[in-house]
Amino acid sequence: MAQTSAELANTPSSIVDREAAVDVKTLSNGSREAGTSAWTPASWTTKPIKQDVIYNDREALSKALAKLERLPPIVTPTEICKLKRSLRDVALGKAFLLQGGDCAELFDYCESNMIESKIKLLLQMSLVLIYGAHKPVVRIARMAGQFAKPRSSPTEQHDGKTIPAFRGDNINGYDPADRTPDPSRLVSAYFHSATTLNYIRASLGSGIADLHSPLDWELGHVKDKKIKIKYERIVGSIAESLRFMQTVGADSAASSLETVDLYTSHEGLLLEYEQSLTRRCKTPLHDILADSEADADGKQWYNTSAHFLWIGDRTRQLDGAHVEYFRGIANPIGIKVGPSMTAAELVSLLDIVNPNKEIGKITLITRYGEDRIASLLAGHIRAVQNSGHVVIWQCDPMHGNTRTTNLGIKTRHFSSILSEVNSALRIHKEEGSFLGGVHLELTGEAVTECVGGSEGLKDEDLNTNYTSYCDPRLNEKQALELAFLVAGFYRSG
Questions:
Q1: Residue 307 carries which DSSP code?
Q2: Whole-model pTM?
Q3: Tens-of-pLDDT digits for all 493 residues of the chain?
Q4: Cα separations (Å) of 15 from 10, 32, 74, 231, 270?
Q5: d(C-alpha 291, C-alpha 296), whole Å
Q6: Among 392, 422, 399, CA closest to 486
Q7: For residues 298 and 356, what is the distance between their CA atoms, to the nearest angstrom?
Q8: Smallest Cα–Cα separation from 27: which of 38, 16, 35?
C-alpha cells in the first residue's frame, strides 16, 4: 500500500526519537518546548502537510532515510552561525543580501562549468552592489540542494493521459516515463548536493574570487557594451584601490581579498529529507554566548543539508507540518510572503518560528507581483515594525510576475521584475524601513527564458535557448542589469 513520507518518517528505524506532542516534562533528549507539546525533528509528522510525496515502495524509502541519517552533515554549525552573524548585520542595515540561483536544480547541473558560471555571476553582481551600496554583500546561492519544487497540481496531462507532475530530480524524473516518486533519488540528492558544495569550496579556495585579479572574472555572454563598460569601470576602480593599498603597504591582510563566503540554500519542502539531516550539534562557543536558544549542554538542532532554508508560500500554514519543522531548527530561515498573506498571519508566523525575536533569524521574501506590491507591502512592513521583530526584508520579483505566452511558454518580462524591485526600494524608504536584499532565479548561462532587458528579447526568441525544466530564469546580462539598478538606487541616495 502506498504510504506518505510523513507516515514513513515516523517509523522506529530512525535514529531520532519520533514520538511527538509529548508532555515537555518527560523530555531528556534536548527537544524544544512549545506550549504543551515539544519539538523534535519528527514532530512535524503530527501536523497536516501540503505538497507531500506518496511513495509506493515503503521498504525502499525506509532504507533511503536510514542511509541519509548515517551520512555526515553537508554543512557545519560553524558555517551556519557565521551566516547568522552576517544576516544580523543585514537586518540592522549594515550589509546587503544577494540570493540567487536556479528555479530547480537538476542532477545534471552538478558539472564544473555550470557551477563556476553561477559562482562568477553572483560574484559579479555582488561587486556591483558593493560599489553602489557601500556595504558588504552576503551571498547565498540557490545551489547544492534546490531540487524539489512545489506544484499547483500533483498531476498533468501528457498525450491525453494523466501522469504525475515533475516535482524535482530528488523526487522523480522529467521524462514522462519516469514520474513515479523514487526514494533512491533522496540519496542521490545528498551526494549531488555534497559534490556541488565541495566544488564551490574548492573553487573559492583556488582563487576564483581573488580581487587581486578581478579581470579574471570573465563577462562570458554579456555582449551589451553599456553594461560591459559599467562593469569594467567598477572593476578598474577596485583594482586601482588595491594597487594603492599595495603601494603604501596596507596589503598585509591580503588573504581576506582572495576569497569570499558563499552559502547554500534551498526550499525546505521535502521534510523527510530535511529531518534525516537534522542533527543536534554543539554550537560554537562565541555563538552560545550571543544566542539564548542553545541548551544547557551548548547544543542545538541544526539542519545540516544547507546553511539557509526557506518556507514556501504554499506551505506556510500556521498549523502545518512545515512551520512545525522550521520552528525548531537553529538555522537562519526565510519565509515567502505572497498576496494571500494577511498582516495578522505574518506576525503570528513570526511569533511561532522566532519567539525570542532573534535579530536577523528570519528573512521575509516578498513576492507580490508588480501590480500588487503597492497595495500590500506597506501594510506588512507596519505590522512587523509594530510586532517588535527585526527581520530582513528581501524582494523576490520573479514569482509574482510569471506569465504564459500564446504558445504556452512560461516567461517573465524584465521590465516587470525591475518594476517590482524599484517599488520595493521606494516603499521601504517611505515606510522608514529598508530593503535588505533580493532573491532571484538566475543562471550564468546565455538562456532566453525572460523577455526584455537590454538585449530586447521577445516572445518569439524564447525557443532560442530555453533550457529550464521549471520556471524562467534571468540570464547573466539581465541579472547584471538588475544589480546595476539596485546599485544606482543606493548611489543616488
A1: S
A2: 0.90
A3: 455 555 545 443 333 333 333 333 323 345 555 444 799 999 999 999 999 999 999 999 999 999 999 999 999 999 999 999 999 999 999 999 999 999 999 999 999 999 999 999 999 899 889 988 999 999 999 999 999 999 999 999 999 999 999 999 999 999 999 999 999 999 999 999 999 999 999 999 998 888 766 555 555 555 677 777 877 777 777 778 767 877 877 655 555 667 899 999 999 999 999 999 999 999 987 776 555 567 888 899 999 999 999 999 999 999 999 999 999 999 999 999 999 999 999 999 999 999 999 999 999 999 999 999 999 999 999 999 999 999 999 999 999 999 999 999 999 999 999 999 999 999 999 999 999 999 999 999 999 999 998 888 999 999 999 999 999 999 998 998 899 888 888 877 6
A4: 11, 17, 18, 51, 18
A5: 12
A6: 422
A7: 17
A8: 38
Please state whether 337 falls in left (phi above 0), alpha (psi between -120 and 50) or beta: beta
Structure-block grid coordinates of residue 297: 549542554
Report the distance separating Cα 404 and Cα 413, nearest Å: 11
Q: Which three-class secondary structure state does DSSP give residue 177? A: helix
> What whole-number distance in Å separates Cα of residue 454 and Cα of residue 477?
8
CA atoms within 13 A on the CB side of 39: 23
**Of the candidates 417, 432, 391, the residue with the CA atom closest to the CA atom of residue 485:** 417
